[in-house]
Structures are given as structure tokens and as C-alpha cells.
What we know:
By secondary structure, this protein is mainly alpha-helical. The protein is 75% helix and 0% strand. It has 14 helices and no strands. The chain has helices at residues 3-22, 29-49, 57-84, 88-99, 107-115, 120-147, 154-162, 165-175, 183-193, 196-207, 217-238, 246-256, 262-270, 275-299. Helix 3 (57-84) packs parallel to helix 6, helix 5 packs antiparallel against helix 6 and helix 11 (217-238) runs parallel beside helix 14. The longest helix is centred in the N-terminal third of the chain and has 28 residues, at 57-84. The radius of gyration is 18 Å and the shape is globular.
Amino acid sequence: MALDAFLLILLMLSLGVLFQRLRVFPDNAAETLNQVVLYVCLPAAVLRYAPRLHLDISVAGIALVPWLLLGATVLSVGAVTRWLRLRRDEHAVLLLCVALGNTSFLGYPLVRALLGDAALPYAVIYDQFGAFLILSTFGLFVLARYGGDRTPTAREIALRILRFPPLIALLIGISVMPAEPPVAIAGILQRVSDALLPLAMLAIGLSLRFKLPRDELKPLAAGLTLKLLLMPLLAFAIVPWLGFDATKAHAVVLESAMPPMITAGALAISHRLAPGLAAALVGYGILLSLLTLPLWAWSMGVALF
């Protein structure tokens, strides 16, 4: 990771937390910034790099990894639940927060900062055909089963997926977008996509919560251990069998090492599923990942500075 990118991440996260404490911005500021990132910066970044994506069988392998890790999540969370005798709502929160990583708002800018522009399309594939599909299927199933909500129909899931802006940009990028667009268009895409990292980090800082549930320390520690250590370790073991080159392998392992997804925590809280545990997994997970992600990158031989 370039030193300036790392410092920018820390600066924008810190500013977000500071502005949250000082109430400088409206309460919905983080949501608004996330929408800007989702509908403007992220599609621009995808359109910049997706046309350079070489489609082969290994691309399907990238999408396969998060689903394999989902199976490992169900088994490991089940074992932890029995071992620690967790409540049903704690079990549900661990299922959501271990299975679903922050592979877009945090994953895209960090993968790009750590591995360079060429790795970003692989992060998009991991996120869109892995994390996002898992959220739209398995995640909603967990909420329906443990939170008393209804299970969405196949049509609702399909429409939600097809309307996701980065996926639309990915499909355009690999179909009709030229690898070398006109200079004016390339310049616009570059300037817009360059705002991805600072805006995403500021939004995350504005939404961080650090409530420590004293009676849920054990599931908190177990969840973070599974998400930040076991899942990337399993991904690290899987990628050699899928024939990835170094860039693809590094992108997959780093995406698997991302902390719990903010959306997963928010959905758990909205369904009254162990809200203190969900908030702590997201908040402390992001902080700890600033240490664990560079360590995973270093372990794979990625130059950090």
C-alpha cells in the first residue's frame, strides 16, 4: 500500500468519527455519501478497469470462493454457537457478519490501494457475484428465519441484483466499453473514481459505532476471529487450487479478509437481532482490519510502502 493512501484512509476515517461526535453533518450524511459512492464513484471506477478484464475460467473461480467460505461460515458458526451456548439472535448475527464482508465500500478502495488498479475488477467480481448475491439470498433468509421477516421471492432478488449500479457498470464494461476510451471520457472517469477512497472512508467513519456489549464479549471475539483470521486463511489455502495468477489470488484473499459488512450489521440491528453485538462486530472489525489487512498483504509478499 502506498504510504499516502494508507494515511488518507486513516485521516478520512478519523475525520468521519470526529464529525460524527461533533454532529457537524446531518444524521443521514453517511447514507448520502454511500449513495454517491454507490451510484457515481464506484460505477466510474468499474468502467475504467472492467474493459481490461480478461475473462477466463479463473474469473468463475473468483466468484466461487465466497460461496465456499459461506459453507465454512455455516459450519464454524454452528460449532461456536454450540461451544459458547449462544442465543438464537447471537447465532444469527454471527451468520450474517462472518459470511458478509465489507467487500465494496471498504474492499474496493483498499484492494486498489494495496494491489493497484489492475486488481479492482477482480474485487468487483468477488463482491458482486459473491458477497452481494449472498446478502440477497442467504442474508435475507437468515433475517426471515431469525428476525420474523418474510422470505423474498426469486423475482425480488433478481430485480435487486440487476438494479445494482456497479453490476450494471461491470456488464457495460466487459461488453461495449472500449479498453481505451476517448481521452475526455477516460479523464472524467479517472477524476470521479479517484473520489472513491476518501468518500467511502469518510462515510464509514461517520457510521462507526463502538458499543461494547459486556455480556457478548465471547461471541464478539469469536466472530472477529472467524471473519478476520479464519476466512482469509481458508481463502489463502483455496486459491492455489484454482489456478489464479498473483493479482487474482491477492485480490481474493484480501476481499475474504474484509471486516463485517456495515449493511449486514445494520440489517441485524433493524431486525432486533443482538444489536449491541452487531454494532460492535462492525465497528471493532473495521478498526482491527486496519492491522490485519496489511498483515495479510505482507504475508503474500505485497509491497506495503
